[in-house]
Amino acid sequence: MPTVKEIRDASRELGRAQGAEKRYEAETKLINLLLQALKDPSLANLHDRLRLDLEKLLRKDVE
Q: Where are the beta strands (DSSP E) in the chain?
């Protein structure tokens, strides 16, 4: 399961990504980490926040 630090790092990486391909790779990495974290019961206190972050990313991807 991913750590909070790994998720934060992936989020920062997404913010710094330049170009469509790099942004896609960073989004994919972050989404996969968020999905893994949602399955981890030890991160229950982060679930709501992660779910909102994931929904925001997915909505942005559709636009």
A: none
Apex CA 60: angle with CA 17 and CA 37, to 5°? 75
Question: Hunting for tokens 């636009």 — which residue is that?
Answer: 63
Rounding to the nearest 10 degrees, give the CA dihedral for residues 36, 38, 40, 45.
140
Structural domain for 20, as ranges: 4-62
Q: Is 38 exposed, middle or buried (0-12, 13-18, 19+ CB in 10 A)?
A: middle
pLDDT single digits (tens) 2-19: 888 898 899 899 899 999
Q: How many domains does the chain have?
A: 1
pLDDT tens digits for range 34-59: 888 877 776 666 666 777 777 777 77
